[in-house]
Amino acid sequence: VYADKTAAGDSGKGVLHLWLTDNTHIVDIGPVSGDDEEGITASSLLYKSAEGEDNKELIALYEKKGEGTPSPSLWSVNLTEQLKRVKEVLATWKKVDDLVSKLCPSKSATDEASAGTACSPAVPTDGLVGFLSGSFSGGTWSDEYLGVNATVKGNDNESNEKAKAATVGSDKGVKFQGAWAEWPVGLQGKNQLYHFANYNFTLVATVSIHNVPEEGAIPLMGAKMNDERSKFFGLSYEKGKWKLLCGSEPVSGEQKPRFGDREDSTRRNCATERHPGLRVRRWSACG
């Protein structure tokens, strides 16, 4: 439980929020204090339960600076509704873990997969912080773990609306038509959820490409700062090969994709990694 300073600036004052995390996923359960609460100096949580009883309680305690007095005041709030939400979120995390671990049940998919891609014999869920799949509505591609959502983008404000209209969701993912999606893991203001993005992470995507492009660079995925100049890495398709860019420079070891002669949808699994001290240490090409 801590004060949300995003709207309050650097004054240290703000609404107290309850957050849930298992050290991998993190979800804002909601506010604990009122909108006009200020000067919260300390907070704690109490959880009460008894064996064999269903009556469980979650209580927030927080300390406020006294108004006109040197002594602080102590407040308590029963978080009955928030506790229900906590249970719902935990159940969702477990459900998504089960779903992800069964992404490639068929032997053929397992045999064709490259090591380290999304279709390895067992898809790891340990350390998996986000999963973007078929939950898509109104230009928002929702994280199945209830964390940070991705947003469909275009090249300008006008094309943003066109991109949202042209992007189609399904239970198997999202079909982009003249559009792309941004997963803004570093844009939560002062309440940064995903510090790992500064140090060490892996991006994995399962992609179906309709009609293999014959010319021009087709960006597939990558990571960058909140500007066009500071790019960590990117993976694109160009002239029959997958090309990995580290910053603005290509990385050696380009690989020719195995699309074959078919012009229908061809599913491929791609992964790129970033490690401390190096922009990109290794990568698994689509294949």
From TrEMBL:
Composition skew (Basic and acidic residues), residue ranges: 255-270
Organism superkingdom: Eukaryota
Residue span(s) of domain Sialidase: 10-63
Residue ranges of domain Trans-sialidase C-terminal in the record: 124-250
Region (Disordered): 250-270
Protein name, entry field: Trans-sialidase, putative
Organism per entry: Trypanosoma cruzi marinkellei
Lineage, uppermost ranks: Eukaryota, Discoba, Euglenozoa, Kinetoplastea, Metakinetoplastina
